[in-house]
Design brief:
alpha/beta, Rossmann fold, 8 helices, 7 strands
């Protein structure tokens, strides 16, 4: 996305710190471009788990993806900022709500995204959430996940340190609990459809990967 487009999204937030954060995040994090590619041409609504400030929704809208998007996040403060941004910009069919994914998921049939939250769940909670999220994916639609993967790499150690720093600075409400492995995703999600796991590092030092489950078409 061009810098004017990034600045337009950043301007949706009234706080100076938030505007700088949003602009820097959109410039440096490969996540948003990757998900815009995955959801290009999507016809089904998107349930965005771990929506934070709603950056995915605003980025997808800026890239011409017009399906309804409903974001859920555990951090009430971020949800309120995302809601304010959507309302003041009159961004249609984009909504946000405070929600703890440990309590289940709302009714939904379409696409689902899970971004950067799995490390805060226990292994049992991860499996429950992934299974439930996969069940919310419509035929031909996708479950798209960004997660750090547990392995022996230096990138994984840096990922853990980054999450601990986010907790120490109060940007995240919790410290990491457990990081899944690539094998965990294969075991849990492969029965639901076609699964692809690929690095999503960009220019960051983190061990982030993109996990994409595509449900087969009906019939």
């Amino acid at each position: 996305m061009s810098d004017p487009g990034i600045q337009k999204i950043a301007s949706l937030f009234p706080g100076r710190w938030e505007r700088h954060y949003v602009a820097a995040k959109l410039r440096t994090d490969p996540l948003y471009t990757a998900l815009a590619q995955e959801f290009r041409g999507a016809e089904n609504p998107i349930l965005d788990l771990g929506c934070g400030l709603g950056l995915l929704a605003f980025f997808l809208r800026a890239n011409g993806i017009a399906v309804p998007i409903h974001g859920l996040d555990y951090d009430q403060r971020k949800v309120e900022m995302a809601t304010h941004a959507a309302e003041t910009s009159e961004t249609r069919q984009v909504t946000f709500a405070h929600h703890d994914a440990r309590s289940g998921l709302p009714e939904h049939q379409g696409n689902v995204s899970i971004l950067d939250i799995l490390q805060f769940f226990t292994p049992t909670e991860q499996e429950t959430l992934l299974t439930l999220a996969a069940s919310r994916v419509a035929p031909g639609a996708k479950l798209v996940i960004r997660s750090g993967l547990r392995d022996e790499s230096a990138r994984f150690k840096i990922t853990v340190l980054g999450d601990l720093l986010a907790k120490a600075t109060f940007w995240m409400k919790a410290a990491p609990t457990h990081y899944p492995t690539a094998g965990d995703f294969q075991r849990i999600l492969a029965p639901f459809g076609s699964l692809e796991i690929s690095p999503l590092w960009g220019k960051t030092p983190f061990n982030n990967h993109l996990i994409v489950l595509t449900r087969p078409q009906a019939g």
